[in-house]
Amino acid sequence: MKFEDQYFKSAFSVDCVIFGFDTNALKVLLIRRGAEPMKGSLAIPGDLVSINESLEQGVERVLNQSVGISNLYMEQVYTFGRVDRHPDGRVITIAYYALVNVRDYKLSAASFAESADWYPVSEALELELGFDHNEILQACFGQLKLKVQSAPIGFELLPKKFTLSQLQLLYELILERDLDKRNFRKKILSLDILTPLNEKQKGVAHRPAKLYQFDEEKYRAMKIVGGLNFDAKKNS
After folding, report:
1. Region of poorest pLDDT, from 1-15, 37-51, 172-186
2. pTM of the full structure
3. Which domains does the chain have, with CATH numbers?
């Protein structure tokens, strides 16, 4: 067998788990495939990488097709290379996750997708997805859990102005556990990356809470020592 026949008969793809936060739910973007293979199945947005593009260019293209924008926060997670993972042949995929604020972007389905929609992560984890996308979703969600405990990346999911309660809820949804309110706020405020605003919530039934913004310049420059370890107990 020729060298090229033995080693140049596989393809590479990128799959991107796009997480979003919407009011009170952590969500993930899933597409309904409109073409074979796996036509009609729910799946993670992804595509084959062309011979003329890098992996990063491939995932940027997938993101642009899915949410209509590039330059999002994204991180490479893992390479999935099981021999039989794709019914059409040997396809090795590199999984990424990206973070967006759901309300900032209008969804658009890629060329082979029939539709695209947001699903609560808790629900998506129980669905039967195409290919090995259940495994990919689990891996990316697990990486997100680890990341939020070592770097305050949550602002990528939040609106520009937010309350401390919204921020805490986001962390609780990602970590899948309750957090002590007092300890959480003490830890977050001690990082000195939040700017308090002279504004409060509007149009809420309860007492309006103070709004904050992330100081992105401080955030980009900082290094967290010891991680973000929060008390698992929640004050009543």
Report:
1. 1-15
2. 0.88
3. 11-148 (3.90.79.10), 161-221 (1.10.10.10)
